[in-house]
TrEMBL record:
<dbReference type="InterPro" id="IPR011576">
    <property type="entry name" value="Pyridox_Oxase_N"/>
</dbReference>
<keyword id="KW-0560">Oxidoreductase</keyword>
<protein>
    <submittedName>
        <fullName>Pyridoxamine 5'-phosphate oxidase family protein</fullName>
    </submittedName>
</protein>
<dbReference type="InterPro" id="IPR052019">
    <property type="entry name" value="F420H2_bilvrd_red/Heme_oxyg"/>
</dbReference>
<dbReference type="InterPro" id="IPR012349">
    <property type="entry name" value="Split_barrel_FMN-bd"/>
</dbReference>
<feature type="domain" description="Pyridoxamine 5'-phosphate oxidase N-terminal">
    <location>
        <begin position="24"/>
        <end position="134"/>
    </location>
</feature>
<dbReference type="Pfam" id="PF01243">
    <property type="entry name" value="PNPOx_N"/>
</dbReference>
Length: 159
């Protein structure tokens, strides 16, 4: 995605662009926090299933510990000139308890199946409650494109 300078996109355009990136990108910055250990941020591979982001990390990682203890998380796609931020609550699944369709889709996208590893992994599902998207200062106003889990401007390609 390229920045459009001072051109301000409508909500439907921001939504379309954000959804396209959620489908095509492979990395997301995951921000978690622990009441005693503070904030933690790490990039992880992710899969967008049309409703939620799926990630996978070692079952003993700081991210796994934090998501289990405090499920509120923030996710950010890695482009500061085309910002997409998601906020929601993490749902955690042990690698042998993850829904089959999600695990298969994750393995298909990355060519790696954590369920086949010797070590334990944790799948983390985040259905966004809020999504913000903007390209530069002209788009700061109106940057919220999802609120309370509902896209603000529905369109057929959003599903």
């Amino acid at each position: 995605m390229e920045t459009t300078g001072a051109v301000r996109r409508r909500t439907a355009e921001r939504m379309r662009d954000a959804l396209e990136r959620l489908v095509t990108e492979r990395d997301v910055w995951v921000s978690t926090a622990h009441p005693h250990h503070g904030p933690h941020q790490v990039p992880l591979w992710f899969l967008w299933d049309g409703r939620a982001v799926w990630m996978c990390t070692s079952a003993i990682s700081v991210t796994a510990r934090n998501a289990r203890e405090e499920p509120r998380v923030r996710l950010a796609l890695p482009d500061t000139s085309d910002v997409v931020l998601l906020q929601g609550e993490a749902e955690c699944f042990a690698d042998q308890e993850v829904p089959e369709d999600a695990a298969e889709a994750f393995a298909d996208k990355f060519g790696w199946d954590p369920r086949e590893e010797e070590d334990s992994f944790l799948y983390i599902r985040v259905a966004p409650r809020t999504v913000r998207a903007w390209r530069g200062e002209p788009e700061l106003r109106g940057r919220v494109i999802m609120r309370d889990g509902t896209w603000l401007e529905q369109q057929s390609s959003a599903v």
